[in-house]
């Protein structure tokens, strides 16, 4: 027996594993999906700040800001990618444009398209904007044309040519009486068109790169333009001259004019013109137009992917929306820039997932990003956690559920704590590995240590300091620094998985070198080697009940090993590709596995049977975790979907039992009808019960009764469609019945 193993015997013959405690599971069903809802492009808030509109491929998704849930998903009939959209100022009409050169007008609150028409452009529409009256719509195309549509009377009112290349930007003047439209194309100039004179009144040139946004003052006499040439230009629309060029020292994707009122928290102390910029530095900054000074700037967050790609102000709601290059949507209070809401639009490749909280109320997700995302399963609220500077690769949770750990490509580890209110903060960090840290595992009995495995082929044991266990942090709230207690070179290739035994005395490691190894903790003394897989190992897991280790390999198999003599007890074959994760369920009597084929498989250990194959992901399932009550499972995959699965074994068994009881009742009723010679009613019941011989017996009995025989045709015609379909569905078994009916009718 391996030192430190639980004192229970009889592992080698798998007696306890086979016997099991409790019921076997037979099926899981998808309870909930967390899917991408934004993959880049335009984002727009309605004027009330209650709904968020964003593009996701062929759809425009409408989010409820309060809950973060997708209320509606609108897709045009052509099912092509959406290239532009705009919501009218009165929040009533939404218009979308697709690559198929079609425009669709939506009554978005009902989710129905009210009109579909050709855009007339010879290339896709790249920009779109409503006028202040919500009756005119301007579209700018990749063909260099600008068209104006009357969305009430459904016709084209204007067609402006003269813009070279793609028209990237269109905007109406806020005063509808002036009838002015502004556009910008690839020549970096801004054109002002008169709807009344049907001509271009002026070409405003000051930028040397693409113009990214146009915004107007409330009196309509001033316009602000921003560009990727790192400047913002203030224009006097009466003289059509640039009055101020402000160097902002970053490529600006959007700029908005702030209300001309003091806002001390934003550094706005006067009523002069101030504007806010969003760009590649990843922070929102407030500028005073008169002096060209930056009067306020956000603190920059660590890591890549925080470049801002969009910014918009909802004046009525007092909200400011910004979008990052990582497709995160951040909602701020416009007067203080305090963060109000966070939305994770697109997680790219999900690498790991875990349940969080004492009651598994939250989930934490590691995707192809330095940020972690924490979702509240009840409210759909999202928190985006910053700290790592490179992609987070793995997660694990301590026993009580509030403390969890992460490791990343930045060669560091971090420990996070979730408060009772659901707020998460980093409380400890450590570094010491010389390559990416790809796997992490927390102690099982108590919150005392964690183990990490790295591409540097070493394992490190990190004890948790007393300051952390007493719910403290470092000086001034900074994370506590972790120090490795032991370092051991374990394998000749990358270590892909580490697992701590339920008694905290054993450690298992799985490597790309095709072996798993067993170690005694805390000295990291080698106890034995598990050899037998033909390719590298992706996952190792201890059984919660027995002295057994499960390993998942790139050779498509799962193996169970005895800790006593390191022999292979069972091999499970069924995945067509690499098995990436494996977990024990049903108190150690079953296995749940996930693979690079996108499938989950439920196995019963006793007979090596694959009980169920679950197909809901479209790509590699990297993340798999089971809840404390063993009634739910969580998976995350390369298709950027996170799926919450529910054990529906008892529900299905109850349904099956109810069906059996119903069949018994119907059979008794049928027997009574036959005994009472009520053949016409018995006929329909016999068909419902799938009793072809009984049906034939009933028909023969009816044949002997002249009165009933006359009513047979009427009875057959009155049968329900599903009862008639039974005969068609079972042509062989019901053939003699059809012959019998044909002879009588």
TrEMBL record:
<dbReference type="GO" id="GO:0000480">
    <property type="term" value="P:endonucleolytic cleavage in 5'-ETS of tricistronic rRNA transcript (SSU-rRNA, 5.8S rRNA, LSU-rRNA)"/>
</dbReference>
<dbReference type="Pfam" id="PF00400">
    <property type="entry name" value="WD40"/>
</dbReference>
<feature type="domain" description="U3 small nucleolar RNA-associated protein 13 C-terminal">
    <location>
        <begin position="667"/>
        <end position="724"/>
    </location>
</feature>
<dbReference type="GO" id="GO:0034511">
    <property type="term" value="F:U3 snoRNA binding"/>
</dbReference>
<dbReference type="InterPro" id="IPR001680">
    <property type="entry name" value="WD40_rpt"/>
</dbReference>
<dbReference type="GO" id="GO:0030686">
    <property type="term" value="C:90S preribosome"/>
</dbReference>
<keyword id="KW-0677">Repeat</keyword>
<protein>
    <submittedName>
        <fullName>Transducin beta like 3</fullName>
    </submittedName>
</protein>
<feature type="repeat" description="WD">
    <location>
        <begin position="430"/>
        <end position="462"/>
    </location>
</feature>
<feature type="repeat" description="WD">
    <location>
        <begin position="572"/>
        <end position="613"/>
    </location>
</feature>
<keyword id="KW-0853">WD repeat</keyword>
<dbReference type="InterPro" id="IPR015943">
    <property type="entry name" value="WD40/YVTN_repeat-like_dom_sf"/>
</dbReference>
<dbReference type="InterPro" id="IPR020472">
    <property type="entry name" value="WD40_PAC1"/>
</dbReference>
<feature type="repeat" description="WD">
    <location>
        <begin position="530"/>
        <end position="571"/>
    </location>
</feature>
<feature type="repeat" description="WD">
    <location>
        <begin position="488"/>
        <end position="519"/>
    </location>
</feature>
<feature type="repeat" description="WD">
    <location>
        <begin position="160"/>
        <end position="203"/>
    </location>
</feature>
<dbReference type="GO" id="GO:0000472">
    <property type="term" value="P:endonucleolytic cleavage to generate mature 5'-end of SSU-rRNA from (SSU-rRNA, 5.8S rRNA, LSU-rRNA)"/>
</dbReference>
<feature type="repeat" description="WD">
    <location>
        <begin position="118"/>
        <end position="151"/>
    </location>
</feature>
<dbReference type="InterPro" id="IPR013934">
    <property type="entry name" value="Utp13_C"/>
</dbReference>
<feature type="repeat" description="WD">
    <location>
        <begin position="385"/>
        <end position="426"/>
    </location>
</feature>
<dbReference type="GO" id="GO:0032040">
    <property type="term" value="C:small-subunit processome"/>
</dbReference>
<dbReference type="InterPro" id="IPR011047">
    <property type="entry name" value="Quinoprotein_ADH-like_sf"/>
</dbReference>
<dbReference type="Pfam" id="PF08625">
    <property type="entry name" value="Utp13"/>
</dbReference>
<dbReference type="InterPro" id="IPR019775">
    <property type="entry name" value="WD40_repeat_CS"/>
</dbReference>
<dbReference type="InterPro" id="IPR036322">
    <property type="entry name" value="WD40_repeat_dom_sf"/>
</dbReference>
<feature type="repeat" description="WD">
    <location>
        <begin position="204"/>
        <end position="245"/>
    </location>
</feature>
<keyword id="KW-0539">Nucleus</keyword>
């Amino acid at each position: 027996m391996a030192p430190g193993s639980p004192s229970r015997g009889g592992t080698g013959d798998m007696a306890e594993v086979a016997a099991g405690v409790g019921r076997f599971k037979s099926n899981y069903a998808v309870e909930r999906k967390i899917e991408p809802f934004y993959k880049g492009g335009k984002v727009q808030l309605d004027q009330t700040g209650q709904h968020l509109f964003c593009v996701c491929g062929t759809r425009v998704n409408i989010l409820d800001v309060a809950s973060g849930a997708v209320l509606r998903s609108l897709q045009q009939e052509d099912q092509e990618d959406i290239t532009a959209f705009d919501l009218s100022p009165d929040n009533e009409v939404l218009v979308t444009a697709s690559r198929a050169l079609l425009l669709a007008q939506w009554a978005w609150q009902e989710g129905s398209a009210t009109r579909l028409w050709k855009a007339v452009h010879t290339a896709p529409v790249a920009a779109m904007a409503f006028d202040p009256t919500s009756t005119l719509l301007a579209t700018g195309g990749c063909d260099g044309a600008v068209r104006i549509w009357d969305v009430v009377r459904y016709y084209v009112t204007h067609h402006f040519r003269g813009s070279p290349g793609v028209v990237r930007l269109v905007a109406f003047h806020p005063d509808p009486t002036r009838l002015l439209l502004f556009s910008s194309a690839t020549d970096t100039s801004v054109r002002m068109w008169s709807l009344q004179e049907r001509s271009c009144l002026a070409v405003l040139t000051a930028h040397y790169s693409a113009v990214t946004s146009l915004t107007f003052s409330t009196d309509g006499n001033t316009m602000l333009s921003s560009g990727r040439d790192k400047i913002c230009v203030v224009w006097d629309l009466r003289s059509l001259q640039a009055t101020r060029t402000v160097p902002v020292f970053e490529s600006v994707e959007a700029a908005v004019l702030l209300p001309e009122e003091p806002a001390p928290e934003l550094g706005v102390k006067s009523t002069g013109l101030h504007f806010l910029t969003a760009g590649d530095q990843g922070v929102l900054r407030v500028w005073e137009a008169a002096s060209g000074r930056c009067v306020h700037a956000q603190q920059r967050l660590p890591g890549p992917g925080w470049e801002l790609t969009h910014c918009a102000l909802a004046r009525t709601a007092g909200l400011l929306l910004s979008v990052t290059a990582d497709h995160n949507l951040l909602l701020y209070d416009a007067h203080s820039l305090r963060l109000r809401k966070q939305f994770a639009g697109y997680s790219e490749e999900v690498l790991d997932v875990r349940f969080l909280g004492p009651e598994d109320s939250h989930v934490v997700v590691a995707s192809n990003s330095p940020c972690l995302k924490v979702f509240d399963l009840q409210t759909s609220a999202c928190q985006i956690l910053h700290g790592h500077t490179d992609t987070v690769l793995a997660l694990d949770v301590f026993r009580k559920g509030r403390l969890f750990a992460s490791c990343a490509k930045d060669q560091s580890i971090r420990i996070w704590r979730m408060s009772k209110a659901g707020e998460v903060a980093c409380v400890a960090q450590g570094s010491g590995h010389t390559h990416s840290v790809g796997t992490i595992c927390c102690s099982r009995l108590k919150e005392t240590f964690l183990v990490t495995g790295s591409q540097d082929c070493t394992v490190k044991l990190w004890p948790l300091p007393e300051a952390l266990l007493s719910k403290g942090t470092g000086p001034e709230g900074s994370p506590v620094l972790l120090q490795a207690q032991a370092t051991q070179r374990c394998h000749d290739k990358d270590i892909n998985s580490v697992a701590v035994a339920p008694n905290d005395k054993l450690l298992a490691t799985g490597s790309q070198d095709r072996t798993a190894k067993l170690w005694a903790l805390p000295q990291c003394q080698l106890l034995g080697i598990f050899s037998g897989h033909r390719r590298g190992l992706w996952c190792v897991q201890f059984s919660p009940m027995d002295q057994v280790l499960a390993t998942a390999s790139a050779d498509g198999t799962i193996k169970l090993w005895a800790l006593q003599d390191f022999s292979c007890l069972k091999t499970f074959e069924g995945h067509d590709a690499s098995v990436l994760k494996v977990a024990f369920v049903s108190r150690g009597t079953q296995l749940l596995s996930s693979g690079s084929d996108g499938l989950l498989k439920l196995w019963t250990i006793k007979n090596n049977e694959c009980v169920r194959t679950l197909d809901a992901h479209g790509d590699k399932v990297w993340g798999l975790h089971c809840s404390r009550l063993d009634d739910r499972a969580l998976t995350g995959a390369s298709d950027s979907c996170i799926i919450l699965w529910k054990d529906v074994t008892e529900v299905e068994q109850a349904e099956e039992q109810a069906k059996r009881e119903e069949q018994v009742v119907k059979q008794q009723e049928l027997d009574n009808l036959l005994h009472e010679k009520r053949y016409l009613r018995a006929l329909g019941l016999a068909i419902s019960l799938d009793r072809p011989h009984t049906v034939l017996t009933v028909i023969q009995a009816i044949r002997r009764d002249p009165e009933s025989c006359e009513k047979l045709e009427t009875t057959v015609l009155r049968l329900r469609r599903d009862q008639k379909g039974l005969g068609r569905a079972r042509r062989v078994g019901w053939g003699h019945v059809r012959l019998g009916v044909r002879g009588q009718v």
